[in-house]
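quick one
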Amino acid sequence: MDSAVLADDPTDALSSLPRRSGRRAAGQVRFFYGPMDCGKSTLALQIDHNHARQGREGMLLVRHDRSGQPKISSRIGITRGAVEVNEDLDIRELVRGRWSASRPVDYLIVDEAQFLTASQVDQLAELADDVQVDVYCFGIATDFQSRLFPGSRRLFELADLIQAVQVEVLCWCGSSGRFNARVVDGRVIRAGDTVLVADTGQDGASAGAAVPDGRDLPDQESVTVRYQVLCRRHFRAGDLGPIATGQGQLSLA
Ligand SMILES: [Zn+2]
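structure w/ zinc ion:
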């Protein structure tokens, strides 16, 4: 099939994006994944910095940022404003809007990418293939039930490069932590909505629940939700360690 024909298709959401000549044929979609606190947001901001320093234009996107503001915030204190990606957002339209304002988009950085819909990941792949946008996604692979998040699943299926973030997060026992346990009132919870965002605070200490839509939590005032990284053995056993009750994992140090 002739790609020029595709480009002229008015139903193509990218049809108003000018193709950039003199560049490589396609961008790349990269997915960096790891458990909470492994430094994904810090890496995201470092990559943004590296690209911006070379004069490239980027957009930062995030879903359910822990700060409650549309920004990418790392736990070591660096923060940058970002566009909140809600469930209905067509990321191609977002890029097209930027483009029609004469602002190029060379790369996208997406934090909390596990919360993307599968369709939004498809849109990212389309942006990479058709208009050479480089896409960097950062997220958690599996949810509190140890199942792949929909966004992460689609990224594993489509990404050109998949990389575990190298900073190792430890379970309380010292083993490598790979699972994010949802903890309510000091107990590991294994059922409920996939997405339930808790604010773990700048210092990693436990904080009250921040529930985007409040579903399935009729009495939010009395419920404290937090997440704790565990090794597989202790995730399966629901064992939060000797002094887990009411404390964030960093307080163990
Ligand atoms: Zn363990």
